[in-house]
UniProtKB/TrEMBL annotation:
Residue ranges of every copy of the ChsH2 rubredoxin-like zinc ribbon domain listed in the record: 51-86
Domain of life where this protein originates: Archaea
Protein's name in the database: Zn-ribbon domain-containing OB-fold protein
InterPro entries recorded: ChsH2_C, ChsH2_Znr, NA-bd_OB-fold, Thioester_dehydratase-like
Entry-linked Pfam families: OB_ChsH2_C, zf-ChsH2
Taxonomic lineage from the root: Archaea, Methanobacteriati, Methanobacteriota, Archaeoglobi, Archaeoglobales
Domain ChsH2 C-terminal OB-fold stretches: 88-149
Length: 167
């Protein structure tokens, strides 16, 4: 990365833009010279029950009482019928793996992690869930049965993961 930065700095003087040539493809690429440090606070007041459920080993979604639409992650309001009368619904935590991808080029906020796998599973309840996949991504295939488990992340907080079902 430092080589790219140096090349980009040199090319700003020569071409007027922070560009560098990609070593693998030979393609010209833009190198952003700004550093991005991001911290944020998001209110969870209206979906606090979701986090309390995780603490109790449950995976909760919301369901619109008016139209019956099920939402994961949980929603305070139904974007389908614009109603706010929602109820909490416990998901069964089992489903089928739809797709996955291994993240080798990690954003700075995940640089402490080795390459990791993000997967999408369709739960038996009908909702799709995106989460980290636990285990070797080369040993799973779309269509395989999976389950959702609540686990502690490296940072110390609880989160849900997709786990292949043995068998």
């Amino acid at each position: 990365m430092e080589d790219l930065r140096k090349a980009a700095e040199t090319n700003i003087k020569e071409y007027g833009f922070p560009v560098a040539i990609d070593e693998k493809s030979g393609a010209l690429q833009w190198v952003d010279m700004r550093e991005l440090h991001l911290k944020y606070i998001i209110s969870i007041e209206n979906i606090q029950e979701f986090f309390e459920g995780l603490r109790d080993g449950k995976l909760l979604a919301t369901k619109c009482k008016k139209c019956g639409e099920l939402f994961f992650p949980p929603q305070k309001d139904c974007p389908t019928c614009m109603d706010s009368d929602m109820e909490w619904f416990e998901l069964k935590k089992e489903g089928v793996l739809e797709t996955l991808t291994v993240i080798f080029v990690r954003p700075p906020s995940f640089s402490a992690y080795e390459p990791y796998t993000v997967a999408i599973a369709k739960l038996d309840d009908g909702v799709r869930i995106t989460a980290w996949l636990r285990g070797d991504p080369q040993k799973v295939r779309p269509g395989q049965r999976v389950k959702i488990e609540i686990a502690k992340r490296k940072e110390g907080y609880l989160m849900y993961e997709i786990v292949p079902v043995e068998g």
